[in-house]
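Dear colleagues,

As part of the handover before I leave the project, I'm documenting each prediction I ran so the next person doesn't have to rerun anything. This entry is a single chain, and its sequence is reproduced below.
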Amino acid sequence: MSLPSARIASNRDGMTLIELLTSVAICLALSVISTVAFVQVRAVLQRMQIRLEMHNSARFLYQQLSEQISAMQQDGAMWIESTQDDGTHNGQLTITFLKGKADEHDFTTASGNYFTGEQNSVYQNRCTDLTWSAWHWDQKHAILSSGTTSPPRQFHLASAWKGPHGNYGYDSTSGNQGTWMANMPQPLRSATPYPAALPAGSSQAALGGNRYGSPDYLNDISDYQDLQNHLSPVLRKVTGCTIELILNDGSVIDADVTQSRILPMDGSFVDAHATPDATGKSAYLKRPRLIRVLIDMTDKVTGISQSFSFSFQPPAMLPLTYPAGNAIP
């Protein structure tokens, strides 16, 4: 006896076990494929985002360096200093130079002391635009920092201090105590004016000489210390850095953490003349016509690295106009 057609149809409403397992396997396979595709797409987007951030950071670095180097004073001293990496990634690299507007004062002008030269007000009004600038790379922390000195630096003498021209901090007659002192950034032309200071020839030796007292007065700091206090990070993840100077005569000077060196460079006069050194080379030939900065940025999480190279042209100098053999006035 045959079953009714309705009974046969009801027996086909459900899925068999094989059909169910097949459907689950297909869904699982599609999920795996989708997950793998999502992870790959996310990794690609993450790498693109990291590289984009590196390029944006490098663009910011270029703008900052370009603005400062374009204001470089070619008649100011300059230093390139590096500390060799001893294998613990403790290398250091620094470039220090004077920047600001043109200053009509001679570089031997006193620092605004009333007993040696111009009045404080005159000197301050004309010279506060001159500042020392430094770019410093710390290999261990992978940080590139920048900073400038304070225009006028003031400090308070809270007790008696006898200077070369008397007691600046205390008047025994009136009992006046608490003199305020002011220091202007010292616009050095010679890069090594204090050969007795250590390390000899460094920016620390040169810029550390305009403090009051010896040793330093408690509340007084030098141009060098003031500059160090103003260094702040401008770029992170910098795992490599090299500075190249292309000089006027075509020679190249490079500095990195593969060697320790101190390279002081004297400034030139406005017309580019200067007393030749022992080799007969004038200062204007030793001043850089092109400054190149090479950096490597690395993201430690993903291992992505990107290299950048920037070239900057410092302000030009007037050519040497004095005929050979003639005395320079």
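Confidence is low (pLDDT under 50) at residues 102-126. Residues 47-150+188-213+228-312 form one domain.

All the best with the project,
I.
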